[in-house]
Amino acid sequence: MLYSKIEGEGKPLLILHGFLGMSDNWKTLGTQFAAEGFQVHILDLRNHGRSFHSDIFTYEAMLQDVFEYCQANNLDKVDIIGHSMGGKMAMFFATKHSEMVDKLIVADIAPKYYPQHHQDILAGLNAVDFSIKPSRNDVETTLAEYVSDFGTRQFLMKNLYWIEPGQLAFRFNLPVFNTNLEAIGKELDANLVFNNPTLFIRGGASRYILDSDFENIKQHFPNSNIETIPNVGHWLHAENPKMFYELSMAFLKK
C-alpha cells in the first residue's frame, strides 16, 4: 500500500507529486486545503518517498496503486491534484476511472508524449557515491557539477535521509529510474476522455504546456480551462504557492 499523509475532514482530495518528488513537497499546501474542508491525502507514489520500491515503474502500475489506495480507504469519489508525472498519472486515473473523480487539477503537464529530459539530473544523482559516507554538503557539491539551478538541487536534496548515523541515502529508487525513465513520458491514448471539470495550471516561464498543446488538451478534457501563473517555472506550486492555492480553491469550490 502507498504511504500517505492524511489531514482534515470533508471531501477527499488526492495530491500526486512529480518525478523525484514526494508527499513532503506538498505539506504546506495540503494543510491549507485541509483547512478549507477537504480530507487531504498526499501520496508517495511507488519508488518515491516512503512508499515501496518495485522493479515495475509504469503509469499502469501506478494507476492500480492509486485505485487500490482509494478502495482501501473507502474513497468512492475524489478530487485530484497532480503535478508533472503526478499530473500525467492523474490524467490516466481520471480517464480510466471517471466515475471516481469529480474534479481534476493538472499542474504543468500536458497529455502529450515527452522525450527524456532528466539526463543531467540523473547523471548528478548517479555521481553521488554513498559508499564514502558523504555529508549533505558533499552531496550538494556533487549535484552542483550537474545541476546548476539551486532550487532544483534543493528539491532533490529533500530526498536525502539517514539510514543510520553517518550514512545518507536517497529515498527514491534510482536504479529503477535509470532503466525505466522512458515510461514517464508516455502520452494518453487518443480515445481517453474525461468529461468532468478540469483545470490545467501552467508556469508562465515553463515549456511543459505550450499554446500548441491546447487543442490536444481539449480533445481529452473537453470541460477544461487553462490558467497561467506568470514568471514561474515547472515547480509552480513551490515558486508561487499563493497563486496556485487561490486558483485551485476557486476551481474546487465552484
UniProtKB/TrEMBL annotation:
Domain AB hydrolase-1 per the UniProt entry, residue ranges: 11-109
Source taxon at top rank: Bacteria
InterPro entries: AB_hydrolase_1, AB_hydrolase_fold
Keywords carried by this UniProt record: Hydrolase
Keyword hit for Hydrolase: yes
Chloroplast found in the keyword field: no
Pfam families noted in UniProt: Abhydrolase_1
GO molecular function: hydrolase activity
Protein name as it appears in the record: Alpha/beta fold hydrolase
Organism field: Flavobacterium shii
Biological classification of the source: Bacteria, Pseudomonadati, Bacteroidota, Flavobacteriia, Flavobacteriales
